[in-house]
Amino acid sequence: MSRITSFGLLIVALLTVATPLSAQTSAELVLGNFELEVDRLAPGATSGSAQIVIDAGASRATIDVNASISGLVVSITGPSGQTIDPTTIAGFNGAVSQFSGSAGGEPTLSTLALPGNHTVFEFDVPEAGVYTVNFDGGVGLGTEVAVVTSVTTDSQLGLALFVTESTLFLGRTVVLGAALFNAAAPVSGANISVAIASDGGESGTVNLFDDGSGADQVSGDGIYTGTYVPLSTGTFRATTRVAGSLPGLGAYSRMGATGFLIVPQSGIISGTFTESILDTNSNGLAEAIRLAFDLNIVTAGDYNLVVFLESPLGVRVASSGTLTLPAGMGGQIPVDFAAADLRAVGEDGPYMIDEVELTYIDPTLGSLVVDQGFDLGSTSAFLQSSLERDPIIVTGMINDQAFDDDMDGLFDRLVVTVEVDLLQAGSYDWSYKISGQDLTEIDFDSDQATLGSGIQTFSLTFQGSAIGMAGLDGPFLVRDLLAQGPSGSSLVVTDLGQTSNYTASQFAGFTGGTPPAFSASSGCDVEFRVEAGNPFTHIVSAMDADMGDSVTVTVANLPPGATLTPAPPAVGNPVALTMVWTPTKADLGLVTVTFTATDQTSRTTDCNVLIRVVANSDPDGGGCGGCSISTDRDGAGWYDLLPLLLLAGGLYLSRRRGVAAP
To answer: Considering just the CA atoms, what is the radius of gyration of the chain in Å?
Structure first.
């Protein structure tokens, strides 16, 4: 033990080499199934062994034996006495490798990335249980040798030890956590004790719990939590070994490690503050309430102060300020709470000063929380009416009423009223619109009036005929308010709310329901490829979802020589037309045939069938170039021919729409 004075500290160093302090604040935890043991060989004690637990969830294992000397003889004894060594490992679908140095890459919780002389066993796990790793340095061993044995497996049981903050000032509480999961399932009931040691000699032990008490937020979620208050500055390492038994896995053992840095405190919140009102336009209304806390700055530099207020009903509102401060007493950072933020809370003061947090912006380490204060008093008893406000405010109240002026059972107009809070009396003009749920505009209106201050209403009338003809059911969206008032005041609001749940059929001008639609097999806006001289057959069909409606299909741009059956206009619901056309060389290029479906309420839908006519690739008619191309040869209405056409550009397969374009 003269040269290896503490194997416990060696384990800490080995584990935390893969966990740099800068990475501890990552929001993503990597769970490891890692186990490690450190042993010592010395003259007179040249052989030894390590005990490794492999659970039943593992099918493949990697065991690395890393020593400070080469030539170490290593073998493994399984739970039932199996011998795994270089002569037998092939029987376990494995291999043994040796190398000096490190495996390279980013260090992980594995000794493979550490320098040394490695003997690595990779093999299929024959059974769960305790594996004994045997190592022998030989009779000529003349010095002490550290032997580090580690194992990783493909078991889904994983552990990660972490801290919520990697760098803290002296006096702050360190929150440690351990995540223990079997695949996605949290493991509860584990006993987790964390050993803590610093480079300055401080040490301690923290027990972590998953019971929802103290620092632990949720009971039984697989996250175990505990706290530690360092007594000194320095680099701290934390390690744990968690052992237990689980149904289906049997006995298990996992190790985890993390680290944190404790630095001297650079600033202190004294707890006293001043409050002032900002009113730059001198209108008697506060644009902001300013709180300035007295600070004791030890290290000059940039600081940020965050203040959390809590309203009488428990609503929290936060604000912050940043300032470069010299060392010494009496420094202050002003923190302004804007009137708009306080108005959004909607409660009169006083507000409790719930929490204050001082952060030092270190040039090297970044933002570090210096000090925190809680329950530091309260603000003055300000009123909401004393706060600066917008001259025009939408309260959020919307009312609507529909009117049947001619008593025919259909609404002729819809009046929509928006409640507003006006700072000044005077002349106002406003406009907004109603839209369908898909944002399609239905109608727009505007108006103007002389209004008093305080709660008033903007009211607009929308025509029932516009609503009925739009054919869109409510509730209608009230959108795009533009209001202007005295002294240049104005307001723009995109979304005001919505009306009651009207239907389009309740309003005058309603002409029907949905427009007709073409079937997907009609191939609207799809390009078909056909060779000159080859017949092209295609079916276009349409229907209307409204019961009782009939659909009329007409056609435009029908090429010469093409026929339609039945001849247009074709009427029905559904209705189908079969187009047959044999293009010639004169038709080379793109031909667009437009089918139009119209229902009884004059709603229309177009379907463009695109036909690309190309030169015949087999003009002598001896091959496939002369084949007929049809999507419905028997006229049954189904695509029943899957022609293969070998063109200069390659092999094309048409499943339902002629020959596909390359």
So the answer is: 40
* Long-range CB contacts for residues 203-207, cutoff 8 Å, separation at least 24: 204/228, 206/176, 206/238
Q: Which strand (E) or helix (H) includes residue 469?
A: helix 464-470
What is the Cα–Cα distance from 539 to 535, expressed in whole angstroms? 14
Rounded to 5 degrees, what angle do the CA atoms 510, 511, 513 make? 95
Residue tagged 């026929």 (tokens): 563
Task: Kindly state the greatest CA–CA separation across the chain.
Answer: 115
> Parallel, antiparallel, or unpaired: how do β-strands 426-435 and 477-484 relate?
antiparallel
- Residue 465: phi and psi, rounded to 5, are -65, -35
Q: Which helix (H) or strand (E) holds 334?
A: strand 328-338
Indicate the pairing of strand 650-653 with strand 604-614: unpaired
Averaged pLDDT in 10-residue chunks for the chain of 662 residues? 31 39 46 83 91 94 92 94 96 94 56 82 95 89 88 92 90 92 92 95 95 90 95 94 92 92 90 93 92 93 96 96 92 94 94 94 87 92 92 95 94 97 95 95 97 96 93 94 95 96 90 84 93 94 80 95 94 94 94 91 88 79 46 43 36 36 36
- Three-state DSSP state, 344: helix
Give the separation between CA 652 and CA 632, rounded to whole angstroms.
Answer: 18
